[in-house]
Amino acid sequence: KAGVTQTPRYLIKTRGQQVTLSCSPISGHRSVSWYQQTPGQGLQFLFEYFSETQRNKGNFPGRFSGRQFSNSRSEMNVSTLELGDSALYLCASSLNTGLGNEAFFGQGTRLTVV
Amino acid sequence: KQEVTQIPAALSVPEGENLVLNCSFTDSAIYNLQWFRQDPGKGLTSLLLIQSSQREQTSGRLNASLDKSSGRSTLYIAASQPGDSATYLCVLNNAGNMLTFGGGTRLMVKP
User: Fold this and answer.
1) Are the Cβ atoms of B101 and A43 closer than 8 angstroms?
2) Is B65 left (phi over 0), alpha (psi -120 to 50) or beta?
C-alpha cells in the first residue's frame, strides 16, 4: 500500500512568484491536511480538506490556498512568495474526519524562496 | 486553543539507557494523541496512536501513556539505540484532523 506522496520534493522560487505543491493521500483516505514547518515556528496547521471541501483553516494569510480533487489528491498554492515562506511543507492523510483517525504524513516539500 | 509542551527540548543519552519523554497539553477534549519521530529534513513517522478512551499503547520498545485529567502523555523508550536518534513529536488531534504539535524533543543516543 503506497504511502502519502508529495511532489515535488524540493523547490526553489524567487520572491513574488507563486508555487503549487501536490499531495496524493493513501488510497481510500478522504481527509488531507497541510502543515508548514519552520525552525522558528515549528509545525503549524494550514488547512484541511475532506471530500473536496475545506473543513478547517489555520491562521495564515490569504496568499495560502488549497483545493482537493474528487480522487482526494490535494494541492496547495502560495502566491506572491515571501522569504518567510521558506519552509518544509507537509501533508497528512486520514481515513476521514471522524474520531480517532490516525494521521499519516508524506516526506514533505522543501520550499526555498530566494 | 490547544497548547502542547514537550520536555526536555533536547536529550543526550548513552546507548542502552531507558528514557522518558514528556508531553503536556492544555485542552483535554482530544480525539487522540500520536507520537511521531522525525529525522532531519524528513517527514513524520507515526510511532504510536492513543485514542481518547485509552490509557496506553505499546509497540516493541516503545510505550506511550495518556492521562487526560492531568493533560499529560509520556513516551517511554526502552534500551535505547543509536538508530533511535531523531526528534520526537507529541501531536494532539482536537477536531477534524486539525493537529497541534509540540515543539519536539531532540534525542541523541550515543554508541
Assistant:
1) yes
2) beta
